[in-house]
Amino acid sequence: MTAAATKPNTKADLSTPTLGDLALRIVANVVREMTRYGRTLRDEDLISIRAVAGTVEAMVCGTAKVVLYLSTQPTGWGKTAILVAAVRAILADLALAHIGIVILVNTLEQIPVLIERMKLKEEDYAVRVGTGEPDLNEMGLTGLCRTNGAKKVAHHYAQVLFTTQQKLSKGLMLHKRDFNDMTFFDYCGRAAPAEIEVLKKDRSCGSKRQVRLWDEAYLPIDPVTIGFDEIAWFAGRLEYLGHPEGAKELKDWLQSVADGSPLYDTVPRWFIWTTWKDGDDPIAVFAEDDERARTLFEAMYYLQGQSVRILRQDYNNKTLAISYRRSIPHNIEPLLIFDAGGGQALDGLHPVWLTPA
Question: What's the pTM value of the predicted model, to 2 decimals?
Answer without folding.
Answer: 0.77
